[in-house]
Amino acid sequence: MLKKVYLITCFLIAAISSAQFHEIGVFLGGSNYIGDIGSDRYLDPNQIAYGLLYKWNVNERYSFRGGLTLTTLVENELNSRVINRSRRSYEIENSIQEFTAGIEINFKNFNLHDPKLSFTPYIFYGLTYFRYDQFYIIPNGPISSPSYNNYGKDEEIALPLTIGLKVNPNPFFVVGFEIGARYSLTDNLDGSNPQNKFVDYSEYKFGNIANNDWYIFTGITISFTFGDLPCYCKE
Fold first, then answer.
1. Which of 71, 72, 228, 230 could form a disulfide with 14 if both were Cys (CB 3.0 to 4.6 A apart)?
2. What angle do CA 160, 165, 171 make, to 5 degrees?
């Protein structure tokens, strides 16, 4: 009886410890913004983006994932292929600090314990909280350039969706390449739709105020694995 209890206990420990296999690592890449100012290209990383990430691999098919990412969204309409934007020549620079949490799903089984090289495409979705600069733009006059007026930081939610491909050359680290879009719940990452309950900025609004802004991350992840390996019990 004791032998059976021991074997069952050992099996449960092995199942739990193998499920609780963790990763911690970094994201390195670039960012770009999509909205009412600048380029009309959806994938055009032009600024450095970097951050930290953590994964709890529940099993071989899905993981809980969280991360902190920092970047600055920059656009200059002098480089725009849209004639009206090029003539307007607006610029933006908006610092972003975001925290994202959600679930990462592998398209095929991805065993981190396997000593052989393995790979899988994956998709990640969840929820993003981020801080950004609030500002508005006073248009350029006949002899003057546009002026940019910052009125503080704000906080907002975004909906993230990431697709990628990851490889584990050995059980100790994982390398991935991914593209992640953030649909923000604000239309003022570019100063086109300033909001303030104390001040009326309606005269400074422009563009399509019915569409919110996006920003995109493109880059690589490098993570190191840690946690208890499965327990193998002898009879």
1. 230
2. 115
Q: Which fold has domain 2-226?
A: Porin (2.40.160)
Distance from the Cα of residue 35 to its chain's centroid: 17
Cα 69–152–45 angle (5° rounding)?
35
151 φ/ψ sector (left φ>0, alpha ψ -120 to 50, else beta):
alpha
User: Measured between alpha carbons, how far is 145 from 147 in angstroms, rounded to an integer?
Assistant: 6
The DSSP element (H or E) to which 178 belongs, if any, is: strand 173-184
222: number of Cβ within 10 Å: 14
> What b/e string do you get for 194-220 counting C-beta neighbours within 10 Å, with b at 16 or more?
beeeeeebeebbbbeeeebbbbbbbbe
99 token code pair: 């925290």
| Tokens linked to 233 | 């019990």
Please give the biggest Cα pair distance in the chain: 92
Total residue count of the chain as it appears in this document: 235
Could you report the average pLDDT of every consecutive run of 10 residues in the chain (235 residues)?
47 45 95 88 93 94 96 86 76 95 96 85 98 89 74 94 95 94 95 85 85 96 80 42
